[in-house]
Design goal:
518 residues, TIM Barrel, eight-stranded parallel β-barrel, two-stranded antiparallel sheet, 43% helix, 11% strand, disordered C terminus
């Protein structure tokens, strides 16, 4: 099959199976960089791969910028798929970096929240997460149309020329709990609405979960190309994943034991790992995925050539390999019911357990919210009138301190001045989510535990989902959009800001009005 001219051409061609490979730059060791370039040179000569993706500070550790490697790869005639995360940059630095990527011709981006920052100079780095992946996708979508500078900024009110970005997002169906799976899917809805052009899955080893995601996207009308993530498991990598050292990826003890046996002979063990990846890639091809994203393999093209040859060999009999890939923990939630004949799924959704009763604390907060924070309800006009009088008066400081004393006791409030409690089941994302995310979970949770505090702290969005499901409101996480925190409001009264139209609700109203006009 002839190679399409660009990654975006290949992924949009229904007759083409797109192939990408992930490169993981280290710091600046010349040997590692030379190995990457040698792989890229051979890949460009062979013409089988459509793009090479380049990670950005993978695992939360500092590494060579993906743009440096990306420029070298594009000189060789291959397309670079640049990972772009939110963990290390605030929104201004993100915008500045996007301008640079545009000028450099690095227009193909994979947008993600990013791993929690880890070891750095003299200790652990500060996490940023000023924007989340949904915010970033929305920002780039505006840049594609022509970014309009804010009128209050120096030289503002000007519309910049359109920038031809092509951006993808990530989703993980490989979660155990219903709350984890559904919040991943609901966030995917938001990502597609924000302008994602394609989606790549997290790494997983469960064929039924891959099939589930494909069916779910078709059922929900999420009509963007889908690429499956396939990892080549070395023994060391498999051990790290089993120990929980790599966020969001799971392998069973059975699979680890099998890999340990295969690596009794290191050379044969690695060949077995390549063949396993080839069988999973063949399954994805058979399921109707638009392509495969390979990762985990050392960058040697002879290994890639062997893998691709095996994938082609296995493709006609891909259904035979489905039983091999059932690597989810016991009790895993599946959106669809199992098809006993294929080992995959039917199109019938799985009946979900009835929700528990909502906590009394939630119901009290909901009652208070309905009375005071819903327009046209009983006390809203009075509260708005009081807010207008307090704002700018000598009472504002006392009012603000009283508000935050109360909210600190009830919610461990962080005094952001731009409160999201009403949208997130009266749980605070800034005090209870390690990444402070406002638009759904990251991909790092395992068995409902937070990526950063495994075994100690439950994933914030698992808790939000469970509360909202208890009152039949869980689908609000699918259709809603939460603007980013406005840092100009930090330490000011969130109640005054709400009633005076200064907080994030002003952006939500603006977006709603635009959609109505459209």
């Amino acid at each position: 099959m002839a190679l399409c001219s660009t990654f975006r051409d290949s992924i949009r061609d229904p007759n083409h199976f797109t192939l990408t490979f992930e490169l993981v730059p280290g710091r600046t060791r010349k040997r590692d960089f030379d190995q990457i370039i040698c792989f890229a040179e051979e890949a460009a000569r062979q013409g089988r791969l459509n793009a090479l993706s380049i990670t950005e500070n993978a695992g939360g550790h500092p590494a060579l910028s993906p743009a440096v490697v990306g420029r070298e790869i594009q000189k060789l005639g291959l397309e670079a798929l640049i990972h772009f995360s939110c963990k290390d940059k605030n929104r201004n630095q993100i915008e500045s970096t996007l301008f640079a990527r545009y000028r450099e011709g690095l227009h193909t981006l994979l947008i993600m929240t990013g791993d929690f920052p880890r070891y750095g100079f003299m200790g652990q780095a500060k996490p940023v997460f000023d924007l989340d992946a949904v915010h970033l996708l929305q920002m780039i979508t505006q840049m594609e149309k022509g970014f309009e500078l804010p009128t209050e900024a120096p030289g503002g009110g000007v519309k910049l020329p359109p920038m031809p970005f092509f951006k993808g997002c990530v989703v993980s169906p490989f979660k155990r709990l219903e709350a984890e799976v559904m919040t991943q899917y609901y966030k995917l809805h938001r990502k597609v609405a924000a302008g994602a052009h394609f989606v790549i899955t997290q790494v997983g080893f469960d064929a039924r979960k891959f099939d589930e995601l494909k069916r779910y996207m078709g059922r929900e009308g999420l009509n963007i190309p889908l690429i499956g993530g396939v990892m080549i498991l070395s023994r060391g990598l498999a051990r790290l994943i089993y120990q929980g050292a790599i966020p969001g990826i799971y392998i069973s003890k059975k699979l680890l034991s099998q890999i340990e046996k295969e690596y009794a002979s290191p050379k044969e063990g690695y060949k077995a790992a390549l063949r396993r990846a080839a069988r999973l890639a063949a399954i994805l091809h058979g399921l109707g995925y638009n392509g495969v994203h390979f990762c985990g393999m050392r960058p040697r093209y002879e290994d890639m050539a062997y893998l691709l040859a095996k994938m082609d060999e296995y493709l006609p009999s891909w259904r035979e390999f489905v039983p091999e890939f059932q690597n989810s923990p016991e009790g895993t939630f599946y959106y669809f019911q199992k098809d006993p004949q294929t080992g995959l799924n039917t199109d019938e959704p799985t009946p979900r357990p009835k929700p528990k009763k909502p906590p009394v604390f939630y119901m009290i907060n909901q009652l208070f919210h309905d009375m005071f924070f819903e327009p046209h309800k009983k006390f809203y006009p009075l509260a708005q009138k009081i807010a207008r009088k307090v704002k700018g008066s000598r009472l504002e400081y006392i009012f603000t301190r009283w508000e935050y004393a109360l909210k600190w006791l009830l919610f461990n409030c962080q005094e952001c001045g731009d409160c999201a409690l009403g949208e997130l089941a009266y749980l605070c994302p800034h005090s209870q989510c390690a990444k402070g995310l406002r638009n759904g979970p990251c991909g790092g949770s395992i068995n409902g535990w937070c990526e950063v505090y495994p075994g100690r702290k439950r994933c914030f969005y698992v808790q939000v989902y469970e509360r909202l499901k208890a009152v039949g409101r869980e689908e609000e996480l699918k259709n809603g959009f939460m603007p980013p925190r406005d840092w100009s409001l930090d330490k000011t009264s969130s109640w005054l800001n709400f009633y005076l139209g200064l907080d994030h609700h002003r952006f939500k109203k603006s977006s709603l009005q635009k959609s109505k006009n459209t």
